[in-house]
Write a structure and sequence with these properties.
This protein has two helices and no strands. The protein is mainly α.
Amino acid sequence: MPFVTKAVIENFMRKQNDMERRIKRLELMALQEAQNKMASLQDKETGQGYKDGYLTIEEILNKIIKT
């Protein structure tokens, strides 16, 4: 069995902790971006969301009929 120094193990642990921290930060950034995207796409009048910025024909007709 090969001998591994304490410094090598500490360096490995430090790199692993740093990577875990970065991944958690990216996850939080992705979550925040998704929440912002959902909030910006939400239609405030009906509470329905837009699909790619456009409403379906049925949704447009329903809006016209309601008014």
